[in-house]
Specification:
Blueprint (H helix, E strand, L loop, with lengths): L3 H15 L1 H16 L3 H7 L5 H7 L5 H12 L14 E4 L10 E4 L1 H14 L1 H7 L2 H4 L1 E4 L7 E2 L5 E3 L1 H7 L1 H10 L4 H4 L4 H14 L4 E8 H24 L9 H10 L4 H11 L7 H5 L5 E5 L8 H7 L5 E2 L2 E3 L4 E4 L12 E3 L5 E11 L2 E4 L9 E2 L8 E7 L7 E13 L2 E9 L3 E2 L6 E2 H12 L7 E11 L6 E10 L10 H14 L2 H8 L7 E5 L3 H11 L16 H8 L2 E6 L6
Parallel strand pairs: 1-5, 3-6, 6-7, 7-8, 21-22
Antiparallel strand pairs: 1-2, 4-5, 9-10, 10-11, 11-17, 12-13, 12-14, 12-15, 15-16, 16-17, 18-19, 20-21, 22-23
Bound molecules: adenosine monophosphate.
């Protein structure tokens, strides 16, 4: 069912992946030719542009290394200290997984790459599900954040906000999406969300695709709907928008389309009023062909819950990108969430890979001496091996460590495909042991299996290391929900204690040894009340994170965030014995 435009894009993907090596060399050559004279690169390349010299002399860096240059540009110095092409603004990374938001230079070329990518990454899904642009509309939850102005007058905005600001996007919005622009730019995300759901319900017979960039935002939408469906139905029945929606943009947009529709309201009410919300998305939006959201990495913890709500509809996670660079896309949109791989697009940046090794029980640690480790080119990575991603871009990042760990799952033509493994910097540690995001995910998965048969779902979790008493111990915050309205207070405390034990048993060998020697104290699970993780999300959003790009931290480091969870604890449980 591929359309001509889609066929053209699929052909382009074939060409890019077939010629990956040559394209990568051209991308690097062009970056070096243009930028070898910048203050930053002159220090390493002395005006030369050879790949070998680049590989030998230019160091791997993190944001902290480049920050002085970026800050100088943000404060008014010319951008050619770092890159030759003029800067048009900055992307603001979400900053939730790694602390403070980062500023990434944006140029006209960066904007062009994003435009190209948006056309490309949807094309495999279009091949399977037909041209959704012609078939109907997308109910996509989108939240812009206000732009920040740097002292130099340049604007900084999240990638998603920058996209929502584009003329092309705005021009196509009414035809392709159910949400009016005012609801996306509403300063209060809750008012915006209410209105986006309202518009999505009013146009429910036209909706062919439901989603948001990240799985957690889709779930946030569903939970919000659980709490507000009666009110939404009332608004649809009467054709009047609730009074608490005070944003004038949202009210104006609503006044243009709302009229009393009691039949539609009754239908929605009947669907929402049922005891179980299993498959609710398909019931509410019967023409939806698939659910769209990233559900790999930190988002994989939401898959089970999402599958419950979208029963019968495929979950498509089709892109892998960050504020630093566009990386890859999923060529198999129908694959199972656990098999999702992203094929790298060699024209988006120059990609290198720092090998990381499997030290214990399948968990990952960096080689001890990074600087001695050769970076591997895109086309030379080995299947089954894990790497940390390093990018060189047209926008002033040279051998920049993104902080993501990826595993090569195969090749498409000559371009490698990667599974997302984890963020590198999320590590729990009391002593010498290191527990990664993946270690934690595996242990939580084992433990929460005890809840499933009892009709309870673990909806959210995060962690931190409590060193306020010696020895320190791991603390997990869990939010638990009953599948059919049961309250988590009905959960037998013995089961929670059992969950603590199961987690400890599932952690790696070093953890268990340290636990046995009492270098680490008993693992603790603190059950928090419903809505605690929404409050955490609200906190980060109030600090400037875009709801569209929000990623819950796997490990809490901010004291304020800790207080939000700690003040909502309703039960504390400890592992009764050492796991060995
Ligand atoms: P930001 O720069 O705020 O957009 O965050 C980018 C980060 O989000 C990446 O470095 C990844 O850690 C994460 N991310 C983006 N896309 C994916 C994906 N498809 N799967 C897993 N994590 C992702």
């Amino acid at each position: 069912m591929a359309t001509n435009g889609c066929e053209g894009r699929l052909k382009m993907i074939e060409e890019l992946t077939t010629n990956a090596e040559q394209i990568q060399d051209e991308v690097l050559g062009e970056i070096l030719r243009r930028n070898a004279g910048t203050e930053y690169l002159r220090g390493y390349l002395h005006g030369q542009t050879e790949k070998q010299l680049f590989k030998k002399n230019v160091p791997m860096v993190t944001y902290e290394d480049l920050k002085p240059y970026i800050d100088r540009i943000a404060n008014g110095e010319t951008s050619d200290i770092l890159l030759a092409e003029p800067i048009t603004g900055f992307f603001l990374s979400s900053g939730t997984s790694g602390g403070q938001p980062k500023l990434m230079p944006v140029t006209a070329e960066v904007a062009n790459k994003w435009e190209l990518f948006r056309g490309l990454y949807e094309s495999p899904a279009m091949k399977h599900f037909g041209d959704i642009n012609q078939a109907g509309k997308r109910l996509e939850l989108m939240f812009a954040r206000p732009e920040i102005e740097t002292p130099s007058g340049l604007k900084a905005a999240s990638v998603s906000t920058s996209i929502y600001n584009e003329c092309n996007f705005r021009a196509n919005l009414p035809k392709l999406y159910t949400s009016p622009v005012e609801t996306i730019f509403c300063p209060d995300p809750n008012q915006g969300l209410y209105c986006q759901l309202l518009f999505g319900l009013i146009q429910r017979d036209e909706v062919v695709k439901v989603g948001s960039v990240f799985a957690s935002t889709v779930l946030r939408g569903i939970k919000f709907l659980e709490n507000h469906w009666q009110e939404l139905c009332y608004d649809i029945k009467t054709g009047r928008l609730s009074d608490w929606i005070t944003d004038s943009g949202c009210r104006n947009a609503a006044s243009l389309v709302m009229k009393p529709n009691p039949e539609q309201a009754d239908l929605i009410e009947t669907i929402c009023n049922c005891k179980s919300w299993e498959g609710i998305i398909r019931k509410l939006w019967p023409k939806a062909r698939y659910i769209w959201c990233i559900c790999t990495g930190i988002m994989r913890q939401y898959i089970a819950e999402l599958e419950f709500y979208c029963r019968g509809l495929p979950l498509v996670s089709d892109l892998y990108a960050c504020s630093e660079a566009i990386c890859g896309m999923n060529l198999e949109p129908l694959c199972k969430p656990c098999d999702i791989s992203y094929t790298f697009l060699p024209n988006m940046a120059y990609f290198e890979f720092l090998p990381v090794k499997n030290e214990r029980d399948g968990s990952i640690e960096m080689k001890s001496n990074n600087e001695d480790t050769e970076l591997v080119d895109l086309v030379n990575v080995k299947a089954g091996q894990c790497y940390e991603l390093v990018v060189t871009t047209c926008a002033g990042l040279y051998r920049y460590k993104v902080g993501d760990v990826l595993m090569v799952s195969g090749f498409y033509n000559n371009a490698p495909q990667f599974q997302f493994v984890e963020r590198k910097n999320v590590i729990l540690s009391v002593d010498q042991e290191k527990t990664s995001e993946t270690d934690l995910f595996k242990a939580v998965t084992e433990a929460k299996a005890l809840l499933d048969p009892l009709g309870f779902i673990l909806t959210e979790y995060t962690s931190y290391v409590d060193t306020s008493s010696a020895p320190g111990h791991y603390v997990l915050f869990w939010e638990i929900k009953g599948k059919e309205g049961t309250h988590c207070k009905e959960l037998d405390p013995k089961i929670m204690v059992e969950c603590c034990s199961r987690m400890e048993e599932s952690l790696h060998y070093t953890y268990k040894i340290y636990r046995k020697r009492n270098i680490i104290a008993a693992l603790e699970i603190r059950v928090v009340k419903q809505g605690s993780f929404e409050a955490l999300m609200d906190y980060y959003v109030s600090k400037g994170t875009s709801l569209s790009q929000y990623k819950k931290p796997s490990c809490i480091k901010s004291e304020e965030a800790m207080k939000i969870l700690d003040s909502r604890v309703i039960g504390k449980y400890f592992s009764p014995k050492s796991p060995l």
